Amino acid sequence: MKILIALAALVVSTVTFAQGTFPDKPIRYIIPFAPGGESDVGARLQGVVFKKKFGQDFIVESKTGAGGALAWSQANTYPGDGYTITSTNLPHLFLQPLEGNVQYKTDDIVNIHFYHYTPDAIVVRAESPYKTYQDLLKAAKEKAGGLNVGGSALNSANHAATERWNAAAGIKSTYVPFKGTADIVASLLGGHVDMAMSYVTLAIAQKGKTRMLAVATEKRHPQFPDTPTFKELGIDWVDGAYRGVSVPKSTPEDIRKKLSSMFSEVNKDPEFRQKMVDLGFELIDVTYDKMPAFMAERGKVYLEVAKRMGLVK
Amino acid sequence: MEQLLSNLALGFGVALTLNNLMYCLIGCLLGTLVGVLPGIGPIATIAMLLPATFTIGDPTASLIMLAGIYYGAQYGGSTTAILVNLPGESSSVVTALDGYQMARQGRAGAALATAAIASFFAGCVATFLLAAAAPPLAQIAFKFGPWEYFSLMVLGLIAAVVLAHGSVIKAVGMILLGLLLGLIGTDVNSGLARFSFGIPELTDGISFVSIAMGVFGFAEIVRNLEQGEAREVFTNKVTKLWPTRQDFRDAWPAVLRGTSLGSLLGILPGGGAVLGSFSAYTLEKKIAKDSSKFGKGDIRGVAAPEAANNAAAQTSFIPLLTLGIPPNPVMALMVGAMIIQGIQPGPQVMAERPQLFWGMIASMWIGNLMLVILNLPLIGIWIKLLKVPYRFLYPAILVFCCIGVYSLSNAPFDVVMTAAFGLIGYLFIKLECEPAPLLLGFVLGPMMEEHLRRAMLLGRGDATQFFTRPLSATLLFISLVLLIIIMLPAIRKKREEAFVE
Amino acid sequence: MHLKNPKDFWAGVMFAAIGIGFAVVVKVNEYPMGTAGRMGAGFFPFYLGLLLAILGVAIIIESLATEGGPVGKLAWKPLFWVLGAVVLFGLIAKIAGLMLSIVVLVGVAAFGGHEFKWKEALLLGVGLAVFCYFVFLYGLKLPFPVWPAFIEG
User: Fold this and answer.
1) Over 70: is that where the pLDDT of A12 sits?
2) Chains in contact with chain B (at least 3 beta-carbon pairs closer than 8 A)
3) What ipTM was estimated for this complex?
4) Which fold has domain A2-116+241-309?
5) Contacts of B319 in chain A (CB under 8 A)
6) In degrees to the nearest 10, what's the CA dihedral of B56, B58, B62, B68?
7) H or E stretch including A148?
8) What is the pLDDT of residues B462-479, one digit of tens each?
């Protein structure tokens, strides 16, 4: 019986490969974060373009937990046929394994493409007494116990950014983890945390209800011409959360490359570009062949951050 | 007021176009279907249909359809809860308590009709609230920091004791057990997999559907079979389809109270809507002159939670539409749908897209109307279903449950887990431990821990804010009063016993 | 020993055992307890477990002083067949496909009933399979294998 099944499975799989028209069925796209957050939204927008260009749907599946670690520790358990892909984030993939509580290692995850990043940003609510970055900094130094900084998940981009800010500005603030960016909003707007260390996307989504005080981009963000960059403020900081996609280790090289070039194609779509930029995403294309160099470079940066966070001695 | 009327006129203008009416109907039908089918909920359905909404093109039409699925599923879910004791969602757990008992007494028709009418009424009120006062109501959500959420959940858990009609102390035990079961899985704060014993599926936590179906549905089937076919599970003389005049008189005030509680709690993102139906039931049982019938087929035990449930379903759109905060996973998917359509959900929707905003609100009312029209005639069919001999009915229930549970993750694990909870649920029946408090504890456990930890972190380890923040203190005070009210009868009984001795 | 209130007694034992179980798992696996300001992953479950254990003991003690009904016999037959059928369904669904699995589920579960008529069970199973085909596969388009794996290819 078992042999029969295995045989049947073999026949099925060779047939699909022989056809060679990857993809010929919908692709399961696992998002390690809650629906409505940046990763989810980005994936759904990509899905629309992907369908247009390659004829197949993305079935976006959210597997929330442990700041993404839950989905990543399962990323290699799926069949390596290219039909199950998992979205990935930096610096999470570096910081979580260094922290040691998660069940995957950085090298376990086969990243095939990084397609955008969202710049770090300091956001306060509109009613906040802190009108400028200087106001905030002053309060951060004076307030007993430090400011409460809301961010998405532990050992995440937001967490790293908070520690980086603490070190660069010489202050001590307390990082308060939330389940996801959407989750921070109620607490930020309700004034239960003093500020959010989040991304430009949050400031755009909550325009009018929030104020962005500083942003980690090269130049000022076109939608926020009055908000200074960290560089202007004297902190050398251009960074954010990188988002990309991974496949299980068992996936053959040609499918890895093919998927990577498909994501590049998606990024080229003019309508898509406009939408993403409007939402606050900065599009990039780190393709599969550039991946080793990119990861090595990021690894060095994050090791520094991790030392500052006390994750590594 | 005039502004409101013109807004509503605009909304109905949009919602009453043939195209939008059709999508509303599709949504309601589909929602009812997935609601009735155990285990298949609105989340899976909406997630599946998200890509399809893009082909619809018009954002208003697609959101109307998705919203229809959402509240259609609420209606459908209570049908299964009443007929076969299978709550597919946390909100219908309470409906199952008295609804199923009514069905066993041959009053399924009355229960279903009451549920539908109560839901419709609550839906109307809550939709009007949404239209008239969404922005000010949204402010309520801001008042709730981690302290308030934690205190609210304490109140909810104490109220859960009342769900059981037997021993108080055992009900407390079931709540604690539920809280602990809810903690199984990956810790949100640190990423540590707790109580998973190396089983990868357990790092996701136990699914609510597994527990609910196991301890309610499967355990009930075994219990029924145990009693033998000789004692038919449902009385054959299903007399009246409709609630009697007395039923109406009993249910009416309960519906009003349920609607108010549900509308209010629905606004709170995360946990609010769940607490709605539970607390409505508790309230009814506590203020009733004669509460002995609760849990044995009291119509108020169906009317109040159903009203609260549906009211909360409507008002949970408030944080979504005014703040862009999705209060539950279904709403989060609606956010996704909006963004796919190029709409940034949040405060600006109402100003920049009045057609969409008011059209959607108007369609909610129309959808509720459609659902009540759709559901009332269906009652006749549902009741016929109960006349099917049990030896045919129970395998059918098993089939639907198994498919539903299997579809959760397309793996055997969830099905095996559900069977295990069937066994546990059967033991609960034998030990007279009632499962409803356990389920509420299970839902609230992780949230309670999250808010407690966040509150303590914000307070730098200082717990006094729970008592110094007015809203949190009030909630804790109400909890204390409720606790005393609950404990009093038990204490009094003790004293009497002591006196006799 | 004669138990005056066996239902409560065993319920108390169950609560106490589970409560202690959770607390022990926290300690054995060394889940961090943290501090009041920064609670660790072990804090909440440990104290909840302890609380449940104390409550369980209280219920046991109370049960010794009150009168109550017996636990009653366990209905092993329906328990075994019904839950067994469910487990079997879960295990074979992927290999056997939905149609066959439904027939098996109905057939096995029918053993748990009062009287078993295999013709009836088979008919019911086939009927439900057809119905489910239209509702779940055709209507809701659930990603289920329909037929056994060796035919499906």
Assistant:
1) no
2) A, C
3) 0.92
4) D-Maltodextrin-Binding Protein; domain 2 (3.40.190)
5) 186
6) -120
7) strand A148-152
8) 889 999 999 999 999 999
**Residue A199: strand pairing partners:** A120
Q: Does B458 touch chain A (CB under 8 A)?
A: yes
**Is residue B23 exposed (0-12), middle (13-18) or buried (19+ Cβ within 10 Å)?**
buried
pLDDT tens track for A215-266: 999 899 999 999 999 999 999 888 898 999 999 998 998 999 999 999 999 9
| H-helix or E-strand spanning residue C61 | helix C43-65
Tens-place pLDDT, residues A178-223: 877 777 888 899 899 999 999 998 898 888 889 999 999 989 999 9
DSSP-derived 3-state class of residue A30: strand
The alpha helices in A89-177, defined as continuous H runs, are 92-99, 133-142, 157-169
| Topology of the domain covering A119-215 | D-Maltodextrin-Binding Protein; domain 2 (3.40.190)
Which amino acid is present at B497?
A: E
Cα C127 from Cα C135, distance rounded (Å): 13
Among B157, B220, B222, B491, the residue to mutate for chain C (most C Cβ within 10 A): B222
Dihedral sign from CA coordinates of A60, A65, A71, A74: negative
Is residue C108's pLDDT more than 80?
A: yes
Residue B78 and residue B74: Cα distance in Å, rounded? Answer: 7
DSSP one-letter string for B81-93? HHHHS--SSGGGH
Please report how many Cα atoms fall inside a 13 Å half-sphere around the Cα of residue A102, on the Cβ side: 30
Determine how many CB atoms are found less than 10 A away from the CB of residue B416: 20
Number of domains observed in the structure of chain B: 1
Asked if the Cβ–Cβ distance from A5 to C152 is below 8 Å, we say: no
Kindly tell me the burial class for residue B248, based on how many C-beta atoms sit within 10 Å of its own C-beta (0-12, 13-18, 19 or more).
middle
**B336 in reach of chain A (CB within 8 A):** yes
Find the helix or strand (DSSP H, E) in which A42 lies.
helix A38-54
CA atoms within 13 A on the CB side of B410: 10
Contact C48 B183 (CB under 8 A): yes
Decide whether A2-116+241-309 matches A119-215 in CATH topology: yes
Nearest to B336 among A44, A103, A179 (CB): A44
Alpha carbon distance B346, B327 (integer Å): 13
Token output for B387:
């006349």
User: For residues A151 and A166, what is the distance between their CA atoms, to the nearest angstrom?
Assistant: 14
What is the predicted pLDDT for the residue at A128?
93
Cα gap A158→B105, rounded to integer Å: 57
Using alpha carbons, select from A197, A195, A224 the residue that is nearest to residue A208.
A224
Residues 6+ apart with CB under 8 A from C143: B410
- Residue B125, classified by CB atoms within 10 Å of its CB into exposed (0-12), middle (13-18) or buried (19+), is buried
Strands A58-62 and A148-152: unpaired
| Residues from chain B contacting residue A77 (CB–CB below 8 Å) | 200
- Number of Cα atoms under 13 Å in the Cβ half of residue B368: 24
State yes or no: pLDDT of C76 exceeds 90. Answer: no
On whether the CB atoms of residues B82 and B103 are closer than 8 A, the answer is: yes
φ/ψ of residue B116, rounded to 5: -65, -45
- Among A177, A191, A220, residue whose Cα is nearest residue A130: A191
Range of the domain at B343: 2-500
Q: Which of A149, A144, A124 lies closest to A134, judged by CA?
A: A124
Nearest chain C Cα distance for residue A235, angstroms:
29
Interface of A with C (CB under 8 A): 4-5, 7-9, 11-12, 15
The phi, psi pair for A176, rounded to 5°, reads -115, 110
What are the residue ranges spanned by the domains of chain A? 2-116+241-309, 119-215
CB-based contact (8 Å) between B423 and chain A? no
Q: Length of chain A in residues, anyone? A: 313
A275 close to B (CB below 8 A): yes
